[in-house]
Structure formats: C-alpha cells, structure tokens
Design brief:
Beta-Lactamase, Alpha-Beta Plaits, TIM Barrel, 3 domains, binds ligand C2E, binds calcium ion, EAL domain-containing protein, Biofilm_reg_signaling
Length: 506
C-alpha cells in the first residue's frame, strides 16, 4: 500500500464518502492477510465528520481461489506452461505483431516418443514427473520471447518469435530435441523419451494461427509415421504425401475383401541354359478408386495398419496355388519365391503354416522360397536365426533379398542356414555405370562360391549387364532384360512358348 493509496483514502473519506478497498494487513502473529474493508465517515448534527467506522473481513482465501482460477484458465496445472487456449491467444498476438514488423514465426509441435510406454509401465505419477521435467527443459531451451505450451497429454508446442536465420532455426530445433532426449533422472531410475517434431513457418506456410497449426500438425504426423525421433518441416510435397497416405489408408482395407489385390510373377533364369527355373511373387493392387498403386507405396500403409501378416498369407496362398498349376502344366520343376518382412519370420508356427500350405497344394517343400531383405535380417536378434533354421528344417529355402545394400558386416552369414543371395538391383545397375560396382558384384560372387550358396542377380536391365554376369559365372538372373512381372496366365503362356528348356532368357 503506497503513499498514493493513503492519499486517495483520505481524500475520499474527507469528502464524506465511504472508501472501499482490499488492504494487505499483518496479523498479530506476523503473517500477512488480505482484508476487504469499508471505511465510512460519521457526521454530527452539524454535518461535521466526527468518526470513521471501519468494517473489514479476511478475504485471503477468496483472493487466492480467484487467482488460481485465473491461472487455471491460462496455465497447465501440471507443468505451469501455457495451456492450449492461452497459447493460441498468445500466438495470435505474436503473429499480428510479427506481421506488422514483417518478421517470421516458426511453430514447432512436439510429441514425445515412448511416453505412453512409461505411463503404462510405471504409472501416471512417474509419467507426470517426466512431463514436468520435459516442460522445464523446453522452457529453458528457448528464448524469453518464445512461447512454450503444453497442449495436452504428451504434446507440447513452441512458437519461436522474431527473425531467425536458417542456421539459428536449425540450432534451436536441435537444442529442443536434445533437451527432450537427454536422460531424465528420477529417484531410483533413469528414463529416456524422444521427440517427434512438426514445423511450420509464418507467413510462408500459413497466414494465421489455425492454418499454421494445421501444417505443423501434418508435418508432425509425417514425422511420427516415418519412425520416431524425426523432425519434419512443412512443404507442399509433404502435404501431398500425407494426403496420398491418407487415401491409401482409407482404401486399402477394402482391397482385401473386394478382391483388388493380385499377384504378379517375375521369372528367374538359369543363365547357363536360359531356362526359367522359378518366379518371384510380387503383390499388386488395382484400387477401384486410386487405380494401380505400386507396392512400395501401399506396403508401408499395410504395415502401419497391422495387416502385414494378412497380406503375406494372401500372397503365400495364391503363390502356392498358382505354383501347383504351373508345375502341373509345365511338367517340370519350378519354384516360387515370396517376400516376407522380417517381423513375420518370428510369427509363431510359421514353418508349420508353410508345411500345411504346401501339403494342401500338393507341393514339395523345395518348391517354395522365402525372400527376406538383408537389412531386415541383420536388424533382428538371434530369434531370426532360430526362425530361419526352422524354415530350413521344413525344407523351405531362404533368399537374402537386396544383398549388398543392408549391412557392411557379413559376419551374420556364418550364423544363418545357407541361403541364396539376391544381388541388389542398385549394385547391378552400377555395373553399367562404373568399375567399382562391378568389382563389388564380382566380390559377392566369390563370397557366395566360398560359402557354397547360390546367387541370383536381380534388376538386370541390359544385355551388357547380362554378359558381365555370365562372364563372371553368376548362375541365376532376374530383371526387365529377361522378363517383367506378369499375371499368372501370361506367365504360363511365357513359360510354354519360350521353349521351357532352352532360350528362355531370350
Ligand atoms: P523386391 O523384393 O526387391 O522386388 C523386386 C522389385 O524390382 C519389383 O518391384 C520388380 O518389379 C522390380 N524389378 C524387377 N526387375 C527389375 C529391373 O530390371 N529393373 C528395375 N528397375 N526394377 C525391376 P515391385 O514389384 O514394385 O516391388 C517392390 C518391392 O515391394 C519389392 O522389392 C518388395 O520389397 C516389395 N514387395 C513386392 N511384393 C511383395 C509381397 O508380396 N510381399 C512383401 N512383403 N513385399 C513385397
Ligand atoms: Ca524380393
Ligand atoms: Ca530385391
């Protein structure tokens, strides 16, 4: 209560009116309290002020409650950061100030990775402590002019104000993700979370807070979808990808039941006699709404939807039926290989399932091959070896797909049952471009022969590549130079008319 306050008090009551205000007073025990007080002047018969009556009551609790309510309306109770509503108010204000000053604003949406796991496994108390720590770090990572808020759950947002060079912005974003990723030490435990971030910029990506937020949200979604711990910046391409993903996501479920999926076969040839000895089964999708969609586009969506196993089952089933028919019509051995993601290798009872499939189609086990990419194999643990061994025991051969692109440590080859290597398309394509790819292909051929495993060159597109492979003693090849993937009817026709014995590669 300053001098002005008392001057005002005296001037009001001296003029004969009552004065009403909240006073900060001290209790007898020394503690402060807020008193709501009315001071009223009393006059005598002549109208002179003779006394003042003061009536007051302690309103400390009411004031505190009001303050808390105001705070709750603006701040997140747990982390003390801005809440969603107050963030948007502040962002609107920042945007209009920035546009007057012709300055940009960068909006960052942050979603914690692995937070749900912490909440589920360790309980909400621990989860809350993690959120509080992360919030404090985020607030500490940015500048005073920036706005940090918790939008709810494990979602945070930061508006970076003012002119920022590209380098400044990247440094700030890096600092933010470093802060989230640093170990979180709580009593008796150390926890790790990561951050996925979506970034949009004012005014380039959106002219108001709503648009800006939407673009950052699209970017965040893409960052999460591509894996954790990523930062994605909004761009029209990113938006198109997101829309395409969404369309595929909506359409793919129906693809299974509506019979829109089918299997194409690309023959593989024995280069010594030109005979087609087998074919790779390649899934195809003719969407009623989107037209043909390549597998590289829709397989990740299938995976995200948890339909990977269903897709593999579909291809396996079709491939076995088509293979039985092909072998019957050709009256000679022929094999089919089916692509399988590494995580499905671990599916319980896979070898039993394959044995049953083969038996139903009346096929010998050796007629079916499973293709697993090198990268996926290496990324898996020892369980892969066990899974591969059980396939091999069931008589199903393994092809290591895209060999030469997955990993530089070949030690794993010694630990898995013998398999054929499919030399990656990228390496084969390199043959016509430069000497070093040719040397690598030659080295792989030597390696395979030392290990006693077969080799198939894939993605062979030119005569020149074919000649090189033949000269180097590569026995099997597959690629557009020999035959493209085709429907089963065409495959049967191709196999019958291409001599089925000699000159198939022609
Ligand atoms: P991948 O297993 O490496 O399959 C070979 C891909 O290379 C096929 O593309 C094939 O059409 C293409 N190709 C064959 N010869 C040539 C060539 O000479 N030049 C070029 N540039 N490309 C050639 P596709 O069918 O689009 O499949 C792409 C990828 O999608 C496959 O790569 C495989 O990883 C995956 N995929 C395809 N079908 C299935 C399936 O049924 N199940 C699973 N899990 N994955 C599949
Ligand atoms: Ca393959
Ligand atoms: Ca391949």
């Amino acid at each position: 209560m300053g001098d002005d306050f008392y001057r005002e008090l005296w001037s009001v009551i001296a003029s004969g009116k009552s004065f009403e205000a909240i006073f900060l007073n001290r209790k007898k025990n020394g503690s402060l309290f807020s008193e709501e007080k009315v001071i009223t002047p009393l006059r005598d018969a002549a109208g002179r002020i003779t006394h003042y009556v003061s009536a007051g009551r302690d309103v400390t609790f009411r004031l505190e409650a009001e303050r808390r309510l105001r705070e709750l309306a603006c701040y997140d109770d747990l982390t003390k950061l801005h809440n969603r509503a107050s963030f948007f108010d502040s962002l609107d204000a920042l945007l209009s100030a920035s546009s007057e000053r012709c300055q940009g604003v960068t909006l960052v949406l942050i979603d914690l990775d692995r937070f749900k796991g912490i909440n589920d496994a360790l309980g909400h108390d621990i989860g809350d402590q993690v959120l509080v720590k992360v919030a404090a770090r985020l607030a500490g990572a940015v500048r005073g002019s920036d706005i940090v808020a918790r939008l709810g759950g494990d979602e945070f947002t930061i508006a970076l104000a003012g002119p920022l060079t590209e380098g400044d912005r990247e440094a700030l974003l890096q600092r933010i993700s470093d802060q989230v990723e640093a170990p979180i030490v709580l009593p008796g435990m150390t926890l790790y979370v990561g951050a996925s971030m979506g970034v949009s910029r004012f005014p380039d990506d959106g002219g108001d807070s709503k648009a800006l937020f939407k673009q950052a949200d699209i970017s965040l979604y893409e960052a999460k979808r591509e894996g954790r711990g990523r930062t994605k910046h909004y761009s029209p391409t990113l938006k198109r990808n997101a829309e395409r993903y969404h369309q595929i996501y909506q359409a793919i479920r129906r693809a299974f039941s509506a019979g829109e999926l089918w299997v194409a076969y690309q023959p593989m040839f024995d280069l010594r006699n030109g005979q087609a000895v087998g074919a790779e089964a390649l899934v195809r999708w003719n969407s009623r709404t989107l037209g043909p969609v390549p597998p590289t586009e829709f397989l990740p969506v299938v995976h995200d939807l948890g339909l990977g196993g269903k897709l593999t089952d579909f291809v396996l089933e079709r491939a076995c039926q088509d293979l039985a028919r092909t072998r019957a019509e050709l009256a000679r051995p022929f094999s089919v290989s089916v692509n399988m993601p590494a995580d499905e290798l671990h599916a319980h009872g896979l070898s039993g399932k394959l044995e049953a499939l083969l038996a139903r189609a009346g096929l010998p086990a050796g007629a079916l091959k499973i293709e697993i990419t090198e990268g996926a194999l290496v990324a898996q643990d020892d369980g892969s070896t066990a899974a591969l061994e059980s396939l091999t025991r069931a008589g199903v051969d393994i092809y290591i797909d895209d060999f030469g692109t997955g990993y530089s440590n070949l030690g794993y080859l010694g630990h898995i049952p013998l398999a054929s290597l499919k030399i990656a398309r990228q390496l084969i394509a390199g043959i016509r471009q430069g000497a070093s790819a040719g040397k690598i292909v030659r080295a792989i051929l030597h390696l395979a022969s030392a290990l006693g495993v077969g080799v198939i060159a894939e993605g062979v597109e030119t005569r020149e590549e074919l000649r090189f492979l033949e000269a180097e003693g590569c026995q099997y090849a597959q690629g557009f130079a020999l035959a493209r993937p085709m429907p089963i009817g065409e495959l049967l026709h191709f196999l019958k008319t291409s001599g089925a014995g000699e000159g198939g590669a022609g």
